[in-house]
Design goal:
The protein is α+β, with helices and mostly antiparallel strands and about 210 residues long. It has helices at about 10-20, 70-80, 90-95, 110, 175-180; strands spanning about 25, 25-30, 40-45, 45-50, 55-60, 80-85, 115, 125, 130-145, 150-165, 170, 175, 180-185, 190-195. A seven-stranded antiparallel beta sheet has the order 3-2-6-9-10-5-4, with helices on one face. A hairpin with a 2-residue loop joins strand 4 (about 45-50) and strand 5 (about 55-60). The protein starts with 9 loop residues before the first helix and ends in a 13-residue tail after the last strand.
């Protein structure tokens, strides 16, 4: 089957993308508004970009319901900083509670019963229960698309502090079995666990 994305709706294109680009890591992004209201929301278009300097990216879309930009993006534009909190299995259900479209004056930390943790170098709070947290300063916001629902932005941020739970570090690396991260799948309720892993060795360099 060959599909020309120009012949179908952005919603149908979205379904094809989220059904094939998976599992997707979840960036649970924490921000603070200029008025001091904490905000917390998950995003599954998320990746690491490079390590010098350590940089990550996530992509908040234009809201399909009203064509507005999300509070997370608005706060990052205003404050130039944000936190990214990794979602482990024990936090998955409470993370979903923060995924709704709430008014800007709603504190999702309080809504979900989560304890915030102050950042060391940013004003945005972090999720204290998250096993890995990144304090980030905004590098760039790149608009993508025509500004209508279905388009969005790529947010690039430099990691200025790593917060890693002590038991996760084994010989300088993250123990993925101890981290127990959650991945996003397709559909409104699709998630996955890391319960089975395998290795394929690269061929030796000539």
């Amino acid at each position: 089957m060959i599909i020309d994305p120009a012949t179908q709706s952005f919603k149908d294109n979205y379904k094809l993308m989220i059904g094939s680009i998976l599992p997707r890591p979840i960036a649970w992004v924490s921000t603070r508004s200029p008025e001091g209201v904490p905000n917390l929301a998950p995003f599954s278009f998320f990746m690491g970009v490079c390590s010098r300097p350590p940089t990550l990216a996530f992509a908040p879309a234009i809201r399909a319901t009203d064509g507005a930009t999300k509070d997370t993006l608005n706060n990052i534009r205003d404050t130039k900083e944000f936190g990214v909190n990794i979602v482990s299995e024990d936090l998955a259900e409470v993370m979903v509670q923060t995924s709704g479209e709430y008014p800007p004056d709603v504190d999702e930390f309080a809504l979900a019963g989560l304890q915030p943790e102050p950042g060391q170098v940013i004003a945005a709070p972090l999720v204290k229960a998250s096993p890995v947290r990144f304090e980030c300063r905004l590098t760039r916001i790149i608009p993508v698309g025509d500004g209508k629902p279905g388009s969005g932005f790529v947010v690039l941020g430099e990691i200025v502090r790593f917060h890693v739970r002590d038991d996760l570090i084994q010989e300088g690396r993250i123990d993925i079995q101890a981290l127990r991260p959650v991945g996003r799948l397709a559909g409104s309720a699709g998630y996955c666990r890391i319960t089975d892993t395998f290795e394929i060795r690269r061929p030796p360099k000539p």
